[in-house]
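TICKET: design request
STATUS: open
ATTACHED STRUCTURE:
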């Protein structure tokens, strides 16, 4: 949407395309909250494709599988994310050999601290058949490949119901094969943060071996909006992007700088310049500070604060774009106001009180 106007916007004849960026636990929680607001809006029945990368891919997969939004939110709040990961190495086991052998080669660690078979099994428990409108993406590792002047790095590997596709230098995609992987396996690939989660390796039917990493490492960084534009015919005004942004604490900024140095710039998402055309799309940017991206066992109180931050941010974006009816908007604003009272009241209460009161509030509103 053009920020200089307040006119209601709408999709082209194709409908809206929902995209979620990376952010680990922050993305899972923030996107789940944003879906609550989208469920109340005029967008509810107009989404024609949805997909995301890294942590943002998970709630949109559930949404594409027609899991009710109330259930998606409950899963985000209740699920212990660390239960989907299996630690099989220490950080030093990963980093020391990599620093010793590969520091100056620009290579990513080929091992992670965690493996994700349980994540795959959990995702596929919702259905191993691909939902019609869902996509996700990972980056194909090519050791020694330097970044070109236009920011293009390794090819992107896109997964859809129609098959597995590889990006060409001009940004288009060629089909490699039929969909030989389950959605759970594709989610394993897009969540493979170098050094943290094992890369995803598999063989194509023609025998080629692919090694895949986190989808946030592509040339567009946190905002993979070229995929719905190139592959699904989306116009700028058709796009809805949920991006929780990078973490901004001193610790996280230091970690990202160190990690970029260790991997020669190939282990953290690129910082891309904002394009003028992006002003035409609906941008939802929750500032999730209550939970860290790699915090996989956050308490429910802080998870609910992250979810409600996503909800409030989406409400504001929908109001500005005039994509939510007055009654729904009024209900949403009232919920946010009551939630803020709960937060203030629970500053000195025992752990879990905020979660219980928030769940009761949303149950009474029929949102959860």
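STATUS: resolved
RESOLUTION: sequence designed for all positions
ATTACHED SEQUENCE:
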């Amino acid at each position: 949407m053009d920020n200089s106007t307040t006119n209601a916007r709408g999709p082209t004849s194709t409908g809206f395309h929902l995209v979620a960026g990376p952010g680990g636990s922050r993305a899972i929680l923030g996107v789940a909250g944003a879906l609550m607001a989208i469920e109340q809006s005029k967008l509810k029945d107009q989404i024609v494709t949805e997909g995301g990368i890294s942590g943002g891919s998970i709630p949109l997969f559930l949404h594409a599988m027609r899991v009710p939004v109330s259930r998606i939110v409950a899963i985000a709040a209740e699920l212990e994310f660390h239960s989907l990961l299996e630690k099989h190495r220490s950080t030093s086991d990963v980093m020391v050999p990599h620093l010793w052998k590969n520091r100056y080669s620009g290579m990513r660690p080929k091992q992670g601290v965690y493996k994700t078979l349980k994540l795959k099994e959990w995702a596929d428990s919702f259905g191993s058949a691909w939902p019609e409108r869902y996509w996700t993406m990972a980056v194909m590792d090519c050791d020694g490949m330097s970044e070109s002047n236009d920011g293009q790095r390794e090819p992107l590997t896109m997964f859809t119901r129609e098959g597995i596709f590889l990006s060409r230098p001009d940004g288009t995609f060629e089909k490699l094969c039929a969909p030989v992987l389950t959605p759970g396996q594709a989610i394993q690939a897009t969540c493979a943060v170098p050094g943290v989660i094992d890369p995803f390796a598999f063989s194509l039917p023609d025998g080629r071996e692919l090694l895949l990493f986190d989808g946030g490492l592509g040339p567009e960084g946190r905002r993979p909006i070229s995929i719905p534009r190139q592959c699904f015919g989306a116009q700028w005004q058709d796009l809805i992007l949920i991006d929780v942004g990078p973490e901004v604490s001193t610790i996280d900024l230091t970690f990202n700088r160190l990690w970029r140095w260790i991997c020669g710039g190939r282990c953290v998402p690129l910082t891309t310049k904002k394009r003028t055309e992006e002003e035409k799309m609906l941008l939802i940017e929750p500032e999730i500070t209550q939970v860290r991206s790699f915090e996989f066992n956050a308490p429910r109180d802080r998870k609910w604060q992250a979810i409600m931050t996503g909800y409030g941010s989406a409400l504001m974006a929908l109001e500005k774009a005039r994509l939510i009816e007055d009654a729904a908007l009024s209900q949403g604003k009232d919920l946010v106001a009551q939630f803020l009272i709960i937060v203030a009241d629970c500053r000195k209460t025992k752990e879990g009180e905020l979660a219980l009161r928030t769940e009761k509030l949303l149950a009474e509103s029929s949102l959860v």
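CLOSING REMARK: Confidence is low (pLDDT under 50) at residues 1-13, 144-152. The longest helix spans residues 300-320.
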